[in-house]
Amino acid sequence: KLELALVFVAAAITAVYVSLPQHSVDKSEFEKFKEVFDKRYTKVKETYRYTIYQENVKKIEKHNADPTQTYKMAVTQFADMTQDEFEGTILKPLAKILIKLDRLPTIAPKVVIAETYEPVPNALDWRASGAVTGVKNQGNCGSCWSFSTTGVLEGAVKIKRGTLPNYSEQRLVDCCGKSGFQCQGCSGAWPEWALNYVNKQGVVSESSYPYTAVEGACKSMTGESILNPTTPWTMIKAGDFTTLKNTVAASPVSVCLDASNWSLYKSGVFSNCGSSNLNHAVLLVGYEDSGAWIVKNSWGTSWGETGYIRLASGNTCGIAQHAITANIA
Question: If exposure means fewest CB atoms within 10 Å of the residue's CB, which of 51, 221, 297, 306 is most exposed?
């Protein structure tokens, strides 16, 4: 019965494939894609994934042929995913996390940074100052929040103490939720929940608690206390991108934004996004003379500009809607 069912599924997929507009993508290109990104499919799913891949290649070529576009697209590890699959697997609508909870998380008071008019550099990139660790890869786990959290902690410690640490995301994925801080492992969280956890339980190194891309049992380890016990984090007034610029001039900032259309981004200044659908947490590490934001992602170095994306100035993708800094003791 199972074999018969698979035959019907394969036939249905083939029918869909034939009915879709075809694009002349050499199969060898798809084979290379599978090899580069270590993709493995069952025989039944192979045709379906190849169909999606072809449609995405067609989308990429059409976009890159448009001279009005300010950024380029390319085949990435997500080129075999539909838009719905990408958003459902890699991105997590952060606003919905609150709805699923019986109560709001217990957090320190939000301290909103008032707008300042102090002069800041015309351009700034914390990578040049050694305040940013290398780009990591969250894999197929919705743990972007943990990478945004470790990133803002690492940058703050480097600026405050002079040495750049490399903190463990897996510790947060495994332990934050189990310790009562509302984090939901690979299903998402707000970075401030993770900072509240760190404030109570401390933080450990990446080498002592390596990343696995799946939520596992919480390993009992003594963490280093680094946050201000009274106000472990500070939130910037929502939508205030002027203050956001002033803030990142002092230290990298954890930001939650809309990354719905990022899957095939390769290079350039991106602006194809909204500002209300917050579904991804990343690290803002600076800005250019043009005002474009420099953002560190957690999808590996093969994606984007060696793991980074540049966003148009202003509140692009909602970058200023939910931004926080870590207050290091």
Answer: 306
